[in-house]
Amino acid sequence: MKNLRLFFTLGVLLAALVGVSCSSSSKSTNSTTVAEDAIEAYVYGYPLITMEYTRRVMTNVPSSMGKLAPMGQFAHLRNFPSVKDREVTAPNSDTLYSLAWLDLNQEAYVFSIPASGKRYYLMPMLSGWTDVFQAPGSRTTGDGKQTYLLTGPNWKGQVPQGMVEYKSPTAMVWILGRTYSSGTPEDFKKVHTFQNGLKLTPLSALNKKYSPTKGKVDASIDMKTHPRDQVDALSGEQYFTLLAQLLKNNPPTAADADMVNKLQRLGITPGQDFNFSSLAPEVQKAVNGATQAAKQKIVAQRARAGEIINGWVYANKTGDYGTDYAQRAFITYFGLGANLQQDAIYPSADVDSTGAPLNGASKYVLHLKTTPPVNGFWSITMYDANYFFVTNSLNRYNLNMRNKMKYNADGSLYIYIQKDSPGKAKEANWLPAPAGAFNLMLRTYWPKQEMLDGTWRAPSVEKVK
Description:
The chain is of the alpha+beta class. The chain is built from nine helices and 21 strands.
């Protein structure tokens, strides 16, 4: 178990905060309690901080280019992610992404989706805390043309006729759209047409001639270092200063009341700036000392992150975390942008049937007696130890329903998992592995009830002796 790694309204609280100032944290406080509070607060804020750094990198361009686009505009990936893509962990090569970041603090947006023609698609909308608050798509809203008004937590106004309001709990919103493609040039073109029909328009520009404005590029933003690494490099003071700033437009929920109290003991009051210099020495020490312990706690969540069956980890929850802050931070760390389980289940494995870590020095086989039961699609993806694609001679990063794999007479399927080719006769079923440690992820989109209730489970990965 220790080797497992998964990818994988403030208004109610304000009354309790009246009369409490940051200076209260400068009083003598039990150092152990404060240290624990700082660690828990770091874990609590990790998704929001990570989303912010990801947003900075992905919107710091003058116009849409590849997977990047200015705020309020779509970036459409016209091909599957490549081995060089490092912005988001655990990417997939089953769908073409359509990505957009919104700031709903000042402006509501009209989001238009064209008819999909029975093509599978999903447009999950993540809050700043990474919870999926809406997920229009094939499963939930069907294949027809749709129009939504996306509003922030403080927006008040009249919803235009013919639109459905989707109110976000935070000003920060990430639309992480996915549209299935068979991968052929002809099918890519059809998906491109659908992507081009996805429109975001500020409500103030509705029924007016609107052209997206040029984005402002901030030269101080690090465009080379992975957002996760940038977050890891923050000191406690930097981390909590940014958290306090982000809490102004991305408030805690009513269920976060206990955490809000802990934040206050650290000098953090939602809606106010963080004054590190005013804190008592022991509180300053706790704040700056929380980073390493908190990151260890996030990684250690793997032991409780899900159920382990046949060496595969099935996450307890994704996309809707409530007050399970450790799970939310863990999923953020290894697989930012996870969907609701009703839309996708992602079993992951890094051990074989004996519990030994998967490693390219060995050869493995996965025998699927029946393929995963889904309404959408399924695939099995290879990742390195850090959940990125693996370079290989076939440029093949997964096997899925569109591959022309060779099935057995009984309908079962052997998947060969190894570094070198298993031979031409078996190469159609070969999932190339790296030389060292690796992880597998089984994607099941729009899973059927057998997946949701656990009737169907993936078999163990068997080492070839």
